[in-house]
Amino acid sequence: MLTLSPELQTPLVSQIVDGLRGLIAGQVLKPGSKLPSIRAFAAAHGVSVFTVVEAYDRLVAQGWLVSRANAGFFVKRRGDEGAAPGTGAPERAVPRFDARWYLKQIYENRNLPMKPGCGWLPHDWLFGDAVKRSMRQLSSDGPELDGYGLPHGHMALRMVVAESLAEHHLAVDSDQVLLTQGSSQALDLVARCLVKPGDVVLVDDPGYPNLLFMLRFAGAQVVGVPRTAAGYDLPALEALLAEHQPTVFFTQPRLQSPTCSVASVAHLHRLLQLAEQHHFMLVENDIYADMDPGVRPSLASLDQLNRVIYLGSFSKTISPNLRTGFLAARRDLLDELVQLKMISGLTSSEITERITFGVVTDGRWRKHLKSLRERLAEAHRTVGRRLLNLGFELFHEPEAGMYLWARHPDLPDSAELSKEATGAGIMLGPGQLFLVEPRPTGWLRFNVAFSQDERMWRFLEQRIEMGQQVAEQGSSLT
Hints:
By secondary structure, this protein is an alpha/beta fold. It has 16 helices and 13 strands. The model is unreliable at 79-99 (pLDDT under 50).
């Protein structure tokens, strides 16, 4: 069908995309005609199945192809939105996969027996005993129920946060720390402080669905910066900066969700140089820092809060129900953020913050974190090995943090797979939820702490076998 040239500088994925697009535009491939299966195309052209998956995904996103569950890929009919070839039947509507859908699914399906797509840790992985001890102590001391807490948040906890940041070479005073209702409120406050309607805002791609929705709601033009295993696609970032004038870049350098990639120190330095050169702020969402066994600098520690606002959270390691997060910023920005916090919700809960303070000053807090890191590392090795054995491609293998980002050539549409999984009692994390421009993709986010159930693995094995059968049938017809 095509002639590919591996010796060219043009990536094979781009050659396939450009070649097929030319064949479709030239009517060599007619509307409604079926393309070779992913495996058949890969075998015929001597490329990997993952190269074909990426090319087909791009063509679907660009509107040249449509993907049909258990049928394959077809040239899209113009003006007909992809009626099935020869049947005249309209294609089944694809659901809208965005942050609103994601939030609804996460909380409505949180009681599903299996939750490999969720964003929290199992109950027995958290520091529950310390939470109970802290609550008992608070109760015996007599919590102050009248009035509100301090605008900045509970002083003792802010001091602990400042001391912890100093251990990681970020020098801040407690009055530069603002406690928030989880990192989500911190992101919202920063967005409302820095972003105006029409501003170009950079984000990680793939990235955090709720942030994408939040920024678009604020009227921002959201532009994705591609992630790599080493951090960022720097040539792509520099090209975006040449085209746009961003106000701010919201990013997660360490153990990023959903890829769990970690930006190298060289990438952090280059990012700070680009921020200085192009005059944009950086918002470093470092909520997985306590899960990182390595000692590494942050953007904030390298910059000392000149162009960086730093976000953290205790929700991931203590309890998501406590909703205790924080941010650190230079004083002039922090004053604005405190005012926004007061306008939108007065103060955060001092009772919650006092409970959190009791936990992080518990004598076993550091031991808990060490044990949690070891447990996550083992889960990464186990789940990663099983995914590889099933034929998945892993984006990155950090052996730290909560997630693995993976795809399988015989599971090209993770949204369809996720809908089937819900019926089987499994909450998956379909990849298009995390993309800046949602499109069909095979990528899935696996929470390694929730990926131990054999029923999930049997489900995946069955769907892979079904996908292979469909591919073989398609290959026999081409």
